[in-house]
Amino acid sequence: MSAAATPKLDLTAPQVVRKISQRSLIIGGLFGALSLVLAFIRPDEFYRAYLLGFMCWLGVALGSMAIVMIRHLTGGGWGTVIRRILGAAMRTLPLLAILFIPVFFGIRHLYIWAQPLSNIEDKHLREHLEQITQTYLTVNGFIIRAIFYFAVWNVLSFLLSKWSKETDRPNAPDNSGRFKAVSGPGLILYGFTISFAAIDWVMSLDPSWISTIFGLIILIGEVLSAMCFAIVVERILFDYKPMSEMLKPDFVHDHGKWMLAFIMVWAYFNFSQWLIIWAGNLPAEITFYLRRLSGGWGSIGLILVLFHFAIPFAMLLSRSFKRNIRKLVWVAVWLMLMRYVDLFWIIEPNFSKTLTVTVADIVVPVAIGGIWLWYFFRNLAALPLLPAYDPDAHEVLEPAHH
Question: Considering all CA atoms of the chain, what is the largest pairwise distance in Å, rounded to the nearest integer?
């Protein structure tokens, strides 16, 4: 085989990965205890914050799986060098399936369609809900579809992980054909399942509102947050071998270009939704923006326009900036924060007409994040940071050309 068959570099994850994993678990445990207290004294606020935090971290896992499949279809060293980072995030999906269980218990706290319809004062909304709760939005249907979504995602993650692990040993088979055979249909399945999951879990918070592009808005936010997360992790690892030897400026440049592309698509999808809804001015659609442009929520929308798109877009136009991991990581961290703000702007106005930030909105997402990061770094430490006997590993292991 190629030079990848006899790697001279120790590809084991550095000890700092295990330290971060332990510290993340401590943080997750402490904030988790506070979250349990909030669940008893302020259940409504807890479940709203829980959905917000869950969607944030689920997005990193699913977005990572999507980027892995894109890499298998397109090739390139940019994806090989972060494949194990993305794979470790992807393999947190079993944990996320367990973490979704509290959403089942909070259905009646979150979704008006799951509550007794006799409690709804708005006659038109009550008549609308009487129709959709007999067909689609039912508690049993909600649970069954969620099980199906996680089953699909975990099967895809299992296959991609299983074949990737096989390339850690000498004389490993060439699984490129298998990866491509799964990745093509897998991306389509991911697109469909996350679109319907977005409808079930987020858009149905306001069942009077519809948008056919909403699923794609959630999807592009997930792949953007996943790429940003991969950049943050590779920056942490860059101070240690083997990442300091593997991460070339060209790869960092490619990661920056992916970030720029995802930012532009995110802006395009959001602007398209706003333009179509605002121009159509239909009662079933316009309520989304009327609620989010008043009561202080409009300031959050302006922050997203400036700091989720305009400023990062301008910064990432610089070639030298995209090639510098020490600079690029700060934009990645900022965009992950903006992803939280974006989901906050999408979810919270369904429950409050005026801009309100509760303690739970901070505590609960941090608790979920601490537990998720513990499992992620545990996964990352379990395998070499590069599939050394993969046919494409030579793109990363060969010396850099300057």
Answer: 71
User: Is 398 part of a structural domain of the chain?
Assistant: no
Spatial distance between the Cα atoms of 354 and 366, rounded to a whole number of angstroms: 24
Closest CA to 137 of 108, 105, 96: 108
Q: Binning pLDDT at 50, 70 and 90, where does residue 64 land?
A: very high
What is the domain count for the chain? 1
Q: CA 60 to CA 225: how far, in whole Å?
A: 6
Domain-located, residue 221: yes
Range of the domain at 276: 9-388
φ/ψ bin of 401: left (φ > 0), alpha (ψ from -120 to 50), beta (otherwise): beta
DSSP letter string over 1-36? --GGGS--S--SPPHHHHHHHHHHHHHHHHHHHHHH
CA distances from 61 to 10, 91, 157, 194 (A): 27, 8, 10, 12
CA nearest neighbour of 193 among 226, 151, 221, 234: 151
Number of residues that make up the chain: 402
Q: What would the mean pLDDT of 34-44 be, rounded to a whole number?
A: 96
The phi, psi pair for 323, rounded to 5°, reads -90, -5
Q: Give domain status of residue 399, yes or no.
A: no
pLDDT at 283 over 90: no
Amino acid found at 81: V
**212-271 residue pLDDT tens:** 999 999 999 999 999 999 999 999 999 999 999 999 999 999 999 999 999 999 999 999
